[in-house]
Structure formats: structure tokens, C-alpha cells
Recover the amino acids of this structure.
């Protein structure tokens, strides 16, 4: 009996391409529709799996609980990263998908980073827009050669640069192939992010 899919989500099958599926993870207050057009821009025709975060903060969906802005409930991060990883496994089975590349924005980027660190076999790589370190202590993880793009905003008031740098260093130390770019923008997503993501993804986009 197939495992039921525990997240409200949108699934868009691949259209005439062997491209890796993308796992789209929205920011605080978003939903499963938010990043669909960005996924299509970054990898046209790729299958898109887009869940909605299960935590509500004043009615706004998120992927894990926080105690204040930038102050995370780390136990909840670990629990929710596990739930999301299990959802991806069940979705791979149901939709006959290869391991996806995560594309996360803000809170979605942070849960993607947590999944990479805690359940390294789930994702083939990740694009993390406006990410920061999502865990208080890092598990020993092997991310050898896993490609990761992090894009930060120079004027981002929500994400401390030091935390984004620590995340990049941690992923690199685990063996991931990390590229970290900082653009002269704020917390919002910009065309610079989309163009960088599309360019960065090209060599890894196809399923080998
Ligand atoms: C978070 O995960 O809380 C982000 O870093 C900030 C946000 O989503 O607003």
C-alpha cells in the first residue's frame, strides 16, 4: 500500500524533458503555488513538486516553528525536516520521480538546508535563496559532490550575513560543492537570483 502524501502540495509532471525534478519550498506566508513560475523559469519542463508548509504562524504557512524572527525552534526544525523528507520519499514513489533538487526561498531555503544536513540522501542538490543556518548543532553528514547554490542579499535585514556564511561553510565541510553569491538586493527575490539559478543549474539539470 503506497504511503499517503502528508503535505498539501501541487505536482506538475515533466513535459518532454529528462530534467531533474525540482522540490519547490516557499517562504513564510506562501503556499504551494508561489514558486511554480520560478521553477518553470529555472528548468523549463522539469517536474515540479511543491508542498505547503504545515506550521501556521498567525495564519501564515511555514515549514517549521520559530520563537521570534531569526530565532528557530531547533527541535521543531529537526522534526519537520524529517516529515518533509518522508513526504519527498513517498512522492518519489507515487509520481515515479528521481531525487529532486530543492529550490527554497527564505523559510523554504532553511528547511531545505536542514533536510540536506539531516537526511542527505533525499535531495540531489539545492538552490537556497536567502538561507541561514537552520540548526543549533550540525550532525556529521556526507554531502560529497552534492551541488548547492546559495544566494544572499547584501541589504537583507532578515538574514544575518554571518549565518548564511556559516551555512555555506558547513555544507562545504560536509563535502558539498557550494557556490555562494551575494547580490545588491534585499530579502525579496530578484531577477539576479533567477538568472544565477538557471545558469548554475544547467550542468546538473539532467538525470544522468
Ligand atoms: C525563517 O525561516 O524564519 C526565515 O529565515 C525568515 C522568514 O521566513 O521570514
Amino acid at each position: 500500500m503506497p504511503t499517503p502524501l502528508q503535505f498539501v502540495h501541487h505536482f506538475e509532471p515533466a513535459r518532454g524533458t529528462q530534467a531533474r525534478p525540482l522540490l519547490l519550498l516557499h517562504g513564510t506566508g506562501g503556499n504551494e503555488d508561489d514558486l511554480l513560475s520560478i521553477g518553470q523559469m529555472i528548468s523549463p519542463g522539469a517536474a515540479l513538486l511543491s508542498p505547503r508548509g504545515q506550521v501556521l504562524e498567525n495564519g501564515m504557512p511555514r515549514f517549521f516553528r520559530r520563537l521570534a524572527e531569526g530565532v528557530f525552534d531547533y527541535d521543531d526544525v529537526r522534526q519537520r525536516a524529517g516529515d518533509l523528507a518522508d513526504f519527498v520519499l513517498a512522492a518519489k514513489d507515487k509520481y515515479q520521480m528521481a531525487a529532486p533538487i530543492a529550490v527554497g526561498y527564505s523559510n523554504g531555503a532553511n528547511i531545505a538546508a536542514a533536510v540536506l544536513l539531516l537526511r542527505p540522501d533525499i535531495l540531489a542538490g539545492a538552490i537556497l535563496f536567502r538561507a541561514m543556518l537552520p540548526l543549533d548543532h550540525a550532525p556529521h553528514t556526507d554531502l560529497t559532490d552534492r551541488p548547492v547554490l546559495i544566494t544572499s542579499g547584501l541589504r537583507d535585514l532578515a538574514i544575518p550575513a554571518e549565518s548564511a556564511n556559516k551555512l555555506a561553510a558547513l555544507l562545504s565541510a560536509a563535502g558539498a560543492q557550494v557556490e555562494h553569491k551575494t547580490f545588491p538586493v534585499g530579502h525579496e527575490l530578484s531577477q539576479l537570483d533567477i538568472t544565477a539559478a538557471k545558469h548554475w543549474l544547467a550542468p546538473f539539470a539532467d538525470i544522468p
The chain has one domain: 23-204.
